[in-house]
Structure formats: C-alpha cells, structure tokens
Amino acid sequence: MADIDWPILTSVPGILALFQTVVVPSFPESPRYLLIQKNDEEKARLALQKLRHNEDVQEEIEELQQEKMAEKTEKSMNSLKLLCFPSLRWQVISVIILMGGQQLSGVNATVPPNPESATGPSPSKLKVSVVLVSFQVYFYTERLYLSTGTDLNNLPYIRLASSVAIIISVFVGIVYIDSMGRKFLLLLGFGMCTILCVVLTMNLELQGDALWMSYVDALLINIFLMVHAVGPSALPNLIIAELFLQSSRSSAYVVGGFVHWFLNFFSIVTFLNIQKYIGFFSFLICCPICAATFFFILKMIPETTNQTFLEIRKQLPIYVAQRQITKMERMPRRNTRRALGEGQNPV
Q1: Is the pTM value of this prediction over 0.90?
Q2: Contact at 8 Å (CB) between 225 and 165?
Q3: Direct distance between the N- and C-terminal alpha carbons of the chain, in angstroms, rounded to an integer
Q4: Residues 6+ away with beta carbon under 8 Å from 76
C-alpha cells in the first residue's frame, strides 16, 4: 500500500462514527435509567414499549421497581465510593480479577517482528513499522508463517483468515452463551489459555527441529485467539453489567475500564523488555495468571445466566458465605476458635 493511501485507510472508522452520530439520537433512553435514577415511570414504560414492540411491559416495570427499592443505599455511587462500599466488595474484586486475567492472559503485548529469525524474505525487504499495541500471538503467527517460506505479501491474507476465525468464534459464543452459560465459557477460555501457554512454549522451542511444527504452532495460536475471543475477551464486560445494579453499574465500568487500560499500558511497557531476555518463554509468565483467574471464577463467580439482576445480587453474598463456611469447617478446631473467638460456636 502506498504511503499516500494511509490517510484514507485511517479515516474509514470515521464513517462509522458519523453514522452513529446520526442514528443514536433516535434511540430511546435506557428504561432503567429513567425509572431508577430519574424516577419517571411513564417515560420508562414508553421506552420499554418501543424496545420490545409490545404494549404489555408491566412485568418488566415491576422488576425495575423492585430493583429501585433494593438499591436505595447505592444512590449517587461514584467510583471512589464503590471501592470502599463493603456490600459490593466482592463484586469489585471480581471485576478487577476478570479484567486483570483478560489483559495478562498473553494476548496483549508490544512485540516487534524479528526478521532475522525468518527464513523467508531477506531482512532488507522487511519494513518493520512501530506498532503501539499488537497481539503477542499475532507476532508469533507472522514469524511462524515466515519460517515456513510463506511470502511476505501473503501475510495480510493469513491475518485476515485469522480475523475471520475470531469473528466466527465470537458469533458461536453469542449463539451458545445462554445455553452453555457465562461461567462455563469463561472457564473454557481461561482453562484453554492456561494449557495453550504451556504447549505453545514447548512447540515454539522445538520449532527449529521440524518444519511441520510451524504449522502446528500456527494452528495452536489460532485456537488460542478463538477461545480467548469466546470467553476472556467478551464476557468480563457482560459480567460487570450483571453483578451490579443500575446506580453502581456505571462506576463499576469505570473501575473495570481503568484496570483494562492500565494493564494494557503495563504490558506495553514491560513485555518488550521481557521478551528480549526470555523469548518464547514469555508465554509461561501468563500461564499462572490464566490458571489463577480460572480457579477464582470456578470458586467465587456464580452462574448468572437466565437470572435477574436482583437474583444475582442475592446469590453472590450467599455464594461467598458458603465458600467461607466450607473453608472454616476444614480448619482445625483450635484455629477455628482463634478466628471466631474463644468460646463461640463456629457453626
């Protein structure tokens, strides 16, 4: 692509922004916002009727009224209050861990291509551009395909095929998210990422011994991208919406967004230097992070599929309490008395 064409290419996203500027004003306001925060039931009813294309929305109005009554203590909740709010502590911890696992799973890094390791085109023909944020796995995909003798001009088409595979996996997740459940897809994503981090490290280290290993590694990397797209990439933002009620939800997104972009910046700053020293073994750093996130989801995150926000809100403290009781029952009696106070019944 000629240098003169880059301004045209970078301006393409502006078409979508212009389209949204024209279309979004015609959208109805959020019914939850109108009823819970603006206390305008009539406008909330009209918005629901427009969204549902149904005049009978009384059941949803009653659900919103119940949610409004349940979150009286969360009015005017900002991000700082949310971090210090005792009854929402586990929700905040869950958001931080999910976003941390998403960003440190091995999919985000700033890693420039290494032309010297390629047996394809000569380094003089490779134009290495400065990329601020790139996929760590995309970096390895480029090296793998170059090592098999693939022409550099074919790499954009190979990346396009990988992008199509990711899009297909996202649509598969959309189709099965309600039948398989949010928790299952998160566990599937982080569990597979944990395994693939180890397998990819071994395979990439053995790549020089056999040419066919490059194709296996390329397949594994694409599987990594696909399972990450199904669970860790897409679902943490959805979980935020389901763990919090209306008045605290926007603040929760602020906390989640801060963790997301801070760790994204952190990976950009640190991963380049780490990769210089340990190379392919950089995947092993991400393996325990994926594993820890997997076990946290398994033990502490309840299934939220087909449940209302109020049901989820009631379920999470019970879920956490059951885990704590189980942990204390496994403690020796002496330690249990010390934790609860001498003379108290641990049950």
Answers
A1: no
A2: yes
A3: 71
A4: 247
